[in-house]
């Protein structure tokens, strides 16, 4: 149990550390950050439940005001900003990514983690992000989809990196990728 809590906290810290990489804020107020790759890694490495818990811990720390998001941002106000949909979608993205890695075992881990990161960390996350942008911006659905399309190239690169890192971690430390370990050790 203590190991699980430590890993959940460690991956929340990883997301925070990725916030130190400078952000690029787009004209409509949503930044491009490396932190979404941390969300992908949470799911791919920790699995669905532990990955989502790690992201929820990170978001709790942001909500109470710790400046952990890229650019030193934090506080409840972020959850009503144009970024809100993406932030709210992070736990779902980690969960879906982890679920796919846990259940798709017939392909190489690199491929599985890359595809899982695309489905969870891009498709699922963008659904939340688009809804958030529709609520916070005065734009149509097609306009919002075009705005979000600016994230696709970078997020595809992050998904590939997350898949490669997950596979490298599994090769270097067999058993350390909990999403592929025995699924009876639940939180």
UniProtKB/TrEMBL annotation:
Pfam families named among the record's database cross-references: BioY
Domain of life per record: Bacteria
Signal peptide: none
Listed Gene3D superfamilies: 1.10.1760.20
Residue spans crossing the bilayer: 51-69, 76-101, 107-137, 144-170
Gene Ontology terms for molecular function: biotin transmembrane transporter activity
Family the entry assigns: Belongs to the BioY family.
Protein name: Biotin transporter
Name of the gene this protein is made from: bioY
């Amino acid at each position: 149990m203590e190991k699980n809590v430590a890993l959940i906290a460690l991956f929340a810290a990883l997301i925070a550390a990725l916030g130190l990489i400078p952000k690029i804020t787009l004209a409509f107020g949503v930044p491009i950050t490396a932190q979404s790759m941390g969300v992908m890694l949470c799911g791919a490495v920790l699995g669905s439940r532990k990955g989502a818990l790690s992201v929820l811990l990170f978001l709790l720390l942001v909500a109470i005001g710790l400046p952990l998001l890229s650019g030193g941002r934090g506080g409840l106000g972020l959850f009503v900003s144009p970024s809100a949909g993406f932030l709210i979608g992070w736990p779902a993205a980690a969960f879906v990514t982890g679920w796919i890695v846990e259940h798709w075992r017939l392909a190489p881990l690199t491929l599985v983690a890359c595809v899982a990161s695309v489905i969870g960390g891009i498709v699922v996350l963008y659904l939340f992000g688009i809804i958030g942008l529709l609520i916070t911006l005065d734009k149509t659905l097609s306009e919002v989809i075009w705005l979000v399309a600016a994230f696709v190239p970078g997020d595809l690169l992050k998904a590939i990196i997350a898949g490669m890192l997950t596979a490298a971690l599994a090769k270097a430390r067999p058993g350390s990728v909990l999403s592929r370990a025995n699924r009876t050790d639940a939180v």
